[in-house]
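Title: Prediction job returns without error message
Component: structure pipeline
Severity: low
Priority: P3
Assignee: unassigned

Description:
Job completed but the reporter wants confirmation the result is attached to the right record. Sequence as submitted:
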Amino acid sequence: MDKQNLIYVADDYARSLTGTGPDHSLGLGWAAYKLHGKVFMLIGEVDGKSTVIVKADPIRAAILRGQFEEISPAHRMSKRHWLSIVAGKSITKALLHREIKESYLLVQASLPQKRIRNAGQPVHKSVSRRQLQPLARRLATELPGVSRGRPFVEKLDVYKVVNKVFLIVTDDPGEPIITVKTEPDQIDTLSEQYENVTPGRYLDKHHWVSVEGGKGVTRELVEDLIKQSYRLALKGVPQRLKPPV
């Protein structure tokens, strides 16, 4: 991606997010994109290079800096929590959209619930501890090619696709959780945003999270996590073995 596209794509995507818009409160030559007065993205020039600056979880930030030479500690902001992105062959539209959205969500999560509602976002009711597992079971069984059983221990209800685990429901009144597969770089972000999401209880903590019902855990979040886990379980499975969608 060249520098003209970098700025255009970042500006266009940030403007599409609910309740946002740029101003020049941080000085001439800098566009600050805010959600209820809190900055989630900056666009300006650093050392003659067009630069997009976004917020990131510190661990995620460190990983990205190691993966991409175009991503570095942020100018003007906390270097642990912000990233600078410049144009380059490794920077794609999808990557830029993802990092802007992650920054927006981090800022959104820090706002009082009332202010988030006023931003125009739909308000979704939280799923209770009692509601979570029936909902997860229903969503999982609606997906193609799913089987279930208890291959590990009796209290773990395991859901598979092409013999790959993507959901574990814990049948224990004292621990009414579900466990799903996720991308490693999402685990810290999810754990920070949702107090009821923690690294996976039973499996590799770098690839799984456990979820308990309660504040902030909505039906939409549960559905997204289960569908993502299902897709990740199928990743690498030959096309001929995948269930028809």
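Comment from assignee: result matches the submitted record. The helical segments are 3-16, 58-67, 93-110, 113-118, 129-141, 184-193, 219-234.
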